[in-house]
Design a protein that fits this description.
This protein is mainly α. About 70% of the residues lie in helices and about 0% in strands.
């Protein structure tokens, strides 16, 4: 059975945003890709802003569901690294919110808010799964997210997913 049109639009938009950011597609691109009219895309999503804001919220929810419950007893960094690694190795694309974060200054506010919410949620998750003082946990969480996003970017730029593995080995 074919997925509902709304879901097919979201899936196609996710691939485009992860590959090229907010401006990496048009509604016409999505319509052509999934075999519908542009008006059908507009029926489900009145604007690109609405579509990408919902997409970023959905990405955050799905990403967090894939992580184990945070706990200092279970190391957080290997689990987060594995989630980022799986996303990169599955399709060779950037983290959706990482691709959007690169364009924060030009994103519509609802989209920028949703991209920021992804990172804020990961920082909260990491804080609950790290040990040490508040300052140490915060520094470790920020450095780890920067390392993971940067490693994804390098792996894509160099067209070699092993770069991610090498750049994040210490988090495993």
């Amino acid at each position: 059975m074919t997925a509902p049109t709304r879901e097919r639009i979201l899936e196609a938009a996710e691939r485009h945003v992860r590959a090229g950011g907010y401006n990496g597609f048009s509604f016409r691109d999505l319509a052509t890709e999934i075999g519908i009219k542009s008006a059908s895309v507009h029926y489900h999503f009145p604007s690109k802003e609405t579509l990408v804001a919902e997409l970023a919220a959905r990405y955050r929810e799905r990403f967090l569901v894939g992580l184990p419950a945070p706990s200092p007893a279970q190391p957080a960094l290997p689990a987060l690294r594995a989630a980022f690694r799986a996303a990169l190795h599955r399709d060779g694309l950037m983290c959706l919110c990482g691709a959007l974060a690169n364009q924060t200054e030009v994103l519509p506010p609802p989209v920028a808010t949703e991209a920021r919410a992804f990172f804020e949620a990961l920082l909260v998750w990491l804080d609950a799964g790290l040990t040490g003082s508040d300052v140490i946990r915060r520094q470790t969480a920020l450095a780890s997210l920067a390392q993971l996003e940067g490693a994804m970017l390098l792996a894509r730029t160099l067209d070699d997913p092993r770069v991610f593995d090498d750049a994040t080995a210490e988090l495993a």
